[in-house]
Design goal:
Layout: H1 8-22, H2 43-55, H3 60-73, H4 79-90, H5 95-103, H6 115-125
Helix pairs in contact: 2-3, 2-4
């Protein structure tokens, strides 16, 4: 039985791939950029953006919870409440944190404890 040797090019590719996976998984998680509120946004545009962001979460549980909340409360929110809601759904980098805070499975951090969070927690109780 003859031993088939691979070409130098194939060997170099294999070595490159092995070097790449030698450092896998990465030693640290990629950094998520800090959230910044859009500038010069009027209230109508803010409501439209928040409605969209409430529906398109990338996580079914929050999509359902936040979209039904937004449908019920968003149109009647004051400017202060809009700002609180905007911060609440955009500042945390992990949607599971929002879900656990709202459902009471984790304690809500002081930064996110506000009037809108209280409304959202009451809203979530309807679906338990």
């Amino acid at each position: 039985m003859a031993l088939k040797l691979c070409s130098v090019t194939t060997w170099n590719r294999a070595v490159t791939v092995c070097k790449h996976f030698a450092s896998f998984p990465p030693k640290s998680e990629p950094q998520i950029p800090e959230w910044k509120k859009p500038e010069n946004e009027d209230e109508k545009l803010t409501r439209a953006r928040l409605l969209y962001q409430s529906r398109k979460r990338g996580m079914l549980e929050n999509g359902l919870l936040l979209s039904s909340f937004a449908d019920q409360y968003l149109s009647s929110m004051t400017s202060k409440q809009l700002h609180q809601y905007d911060t609440l759904i955009n500042k945390p980098s992990n949607d599971w944190d929002i879900y656990y805070w709202v459902t009471g499975n984790l304690e809500t951090p002081a930064d996110f404890e506000c009037e809108v969070m209280d409304l959202l927690k009451e809203h979530a109780k309807k679906y338990k």
